[in-house]
Design a protein that fits this description.
The chain is an alpha+beta fold. It has 22 helices and 29 strands. The strands form eleven sheets. The protein has a five-stranded mixed beta sheet, sandwiched between helices. Strands 26-27-23-28-29 form a five-stranded antiparallel beta sheet. It has a three-stranded antiparallel beta sheet with strand order 19-10-22. Helix 7 crosses helix 21. The mean pLDDT is 90.
Length: 682
């Protein structure tokens, strides 16, 4: 029996974040709705609502009875619904169909909203739904407090929309053009179940270590800010600058302030030549100048003024000094230009409030500084880059982990499959996919085993993207290097080091992969650019394959990966230089898509299956790695599973995608007391 299912549950807020999972003690399941695909019969069961409670347990029995008869469970965002069912004790181990993930695959990498309402609208489904729930939530109602008749009406409408969406999608999948997507869809649905179980397992957080990391980060942030403000004062006199503001940091770097922030970015829409760009910048911004400070004669340097009472005493609360704007001093412009005075090279650097000060642009400016022996500027920019990173990791990881770690000390790692165009997983609450590597940001040390004497194991693929590119392109040079055990990352680091910039193997990794995804030596240091310049000469097969992909996109408005996954490029055109538009994505998608969108999910499913009868469990996956919490008695057995997986990789890929790999893939394993301090064992 095919059943459409949807659930309604309560939520809580913590630190301004909505938390809606069942691992919060105060959250609970309110309603479960089910509708049969054949016949359309429906069942709405209320479990816990202020107007009605399932005190007898009859509702729970009715839900389980339907699940026992179900052969295909159809949901929109199945991970959420399955998590609630399983955590609340309901059993279902059959096949699933996720209309959200199904639509994601049919979109072929095109960015479109995937909410149930948006999908239903795209298919012009007649959904009788009045979304009054938002009004109740805005007024402070929780789900179990919304009038039961309105909540049931809403749930019934969602069931109907999911049903209609499922039927429409099945019609599309019957089209021959979608034949290659069937396998992708099946593996995606199975991956969804695995990721749900991973989420439910959770990873143990050492709260003491987390506080230690916070203290270290906050101290480093304060030290960097002190150094930056000292240099800013030397550059810009007493001009007040908030270095944590991207807009004001831009003023320091580029020595100009935009006239009209609302119109700034639009001014460059039709700019084509470098001269047009320079003219637009000049005519629509003001040069910043150094200033000299004089003690404010009104407030006498106190930055505040007081009104006087009739008896001659001051009012208790002061006003901000209008003459100096609460600075305590007045500023007078001089004729010396402020800031570092960099020139933004193109409209790609434009942001809404000035020029972008993102990581890539800072890297380009650092490279420019080093190439021109501007040591002070390079140090300033490096500090600014580090400050941005430290601030980001404090808010994203330290605060994020604190917010989402449950009272029992477990963080449930949220992973989604539908955000990236390639199929690569995205993280949420917090995004663990951006977890920093190495000791530079020691956040990983807070993740420990749930068992005393247990171990954390990270199993990751060796050079997965490079090996994937070698296979897809059938580049003989790259394939020979892989078969001979050649360390491409060490080679990359050596090329850059020999060119005058000492580089570690870990640092070299980023440069190894970048050309595979369309990056060039532009904006890099001379030493780094030396590697990029000869990449295509070193690997002519990869260069030829990239050209072939571009031609395919121009001819068919899409490209198809070896697995059958498709990526659409409906507006692709050939530029005057012969290269297609979207060329970076055209080169990137097949490599990243097959490596982390197709192979990693397949291995993740298989690894979970082989761990099924063990206490050890998968607790996270980051790009091409899987993190396992190992029970103290199961260490050797888990390592043997990883070894046998290595032996079976080729067979797994061939059975799933009908692909014969002639480039070996290799899983390596590291074990330690926490995620950071792991050491190689395989």
């Amino acid at each position: 029996m095919e059943i459409v299912l949807d659930v309604e549950n309560t939520t809580i807020k913590r630190n301004g974040k909505v938390i809606l999972d069942p691992f919060e003690p105060s959250n609970f399941l309110v309603q479960v709705g089910m509708m049969a695909v054949k016949g359309g019969s429906e069942c709405i069961v209320t479990l816990d609502h202020v107007e009605q409670k399932d005190t007898s347990g009859a509702g729970r029995k009715e839900i389980q009875k339907v699940l026992d008869m179900t052969t295909l469970l159809i949901m929109h965002n199945a991970q959420h619904d399955l998590m609630w069912l399983w955590e609340c004790g309901f059993k279902y181990s059959g096949d699933i169909y996720d209309t959200m993930l199904s639509e994601y695959i049919l979109l072929r990498g095109q960015k479109e909203p995937l909410s149930l309402d948006a999908c239903a609208q795209r298919y012009e489904l007649d959904v009788q739904k009045q979304d009054t729930l938002k009004k109740y939530f805005k007024e402070g109602y929780n789900t179990n407090e919304i009038p039961l008749n309105e909540l049931s009406f809403y749930l019934r409408a969602d069931l109907g929309a999911t049903m209609g969406l499922y039927l429409k999608q099945e019609e599309r999948y019957a089209d021959p053009s979608c034949a290659s997507l069937h396998t992708i869809r099946a593996i995606t649905f199975n991956t969804c179940k695995t990721l749900t179980r991973l989420y439910m397992s959770g990873v143990k957080v050492d709260l003491g270590a987390l506080q230690q990391v916070r203290t270290e980060f906050e101290k480093e942030k304060a030290d960097i800010e002190l150094r930056l403000h000292k240099q800013i004062r030397e550059l810009m006199g007493d001009t007040p600058i908030n270095i944590n503001s991207p807009e004001q940091a831009s003023q320091v770097l580029f020595s100009c302030k935009v006239h009209n922030k609302k119109e700034w970015a639009e001014l460059f829409e039709f700019v084509k030549t470098p001269q047009e760009f320079r003219d637009a910048v000049k005519s629509n911004s003001s040069r910043l100048f150094k200033t000299k400070a004089f003690t404010c004669p009104v407030c006498k340097g106190e930055a505040k003024t007081y009104k006087i009472k009739k008896d001659g005493t001051k009012f208790a609360r002061p006003n901000k000094c209008k003459d100096c704007d609460a600075r305590g001093y007045q500023l007078k412009k001089t004729n010396e230009m402020a800031g570092l005075g960099f020139a933004a090279p193109s409209k790609k650097w434009i942001s809404a409030n000035g020029f972008s000060t993102g990581k890539d642009n800072l890297d380009a400016l650092i490279a420019t500084s080093k190439n021109n022996r501007m040591d002070k500027a390079a140090n300033f920019l490096s500090d600014l880059k580090r400050l941005s990173a430290v601030s980001s990791y404090l808010s994203s990881f330290v605060d994020g982990i604190s917010t989402y770690t449950k009272p029992d000390g477990f963080l449930h790692v949220g992973l989604t499959q539908h955000i990236t165009a390639t199929g690569r997983f995205s993280g949420r609450n917090p995004n663990m996919q951006n977890m920093p590597r190495g000791n530079t940001f020691p956040v990983k040390k807070v993740f420990i085993s749930r068992w005393e004497g247990g171990h954390i194991c990270e199993a990751d693929f060796a050079q997965l993207e490079f090996r994937t590119a070698a296979f897809l392109a059938q580049d003989k040079v790259a394939m020979d290097e892989i078969l001979s055990g050649f360390d491409v990352h060490s080679y990359t680091a050596k090329v850059i080091s020999d060119a005058g910039q000492p580089t570690t193997r870990q640092e070299g990794k980023a440069h190894t992969f970048a050309p595979l995804f369309g990056a060039t030596g532009y904006g890099r240091s001379k030493a780094e650019a030396s590697y990029y310049e000869h990449f295509n000469d070193k690997y002519p097969g990869i260069a030829a394959w990239h050209k072939k992909l571009g031609n395919e996109a121009i001819r068919l408005n899409k490209i198809t990966n070896v697995s059958g996954r498709q990526y659409a490029f409906p507006d692709v055109v050939r530029r005057e230089n012969g290269m297609p538009t979207h060329f970076t994505m055209i080169k990137n998608y097949p490599v990243q898509g097959f490596a982390t969108g197709d192979v990693v999910p397949l291995v993740l499913i298989e690894l979970e299956a082989r761990l099924e009868k063990m206490q050890s469990c998968i607790v996270n996956t980051v790009h091409d790695s899987m993190v396992i919490d190992i029970h103290p008695n199961e260490k050797e057995y888990v390592l043997s599973i990883i070894n046998t997986l290595n032996e079976d990789l080729d067979k797994l890929i061939e059975e799933a995608y009908d692909i014969k790999m002639n480039v070996p893939l290799l899983l390596e394993a590291k074990i330690g007391p926490n995620w950071l301090d792991t050491k190689d064992v395989i």
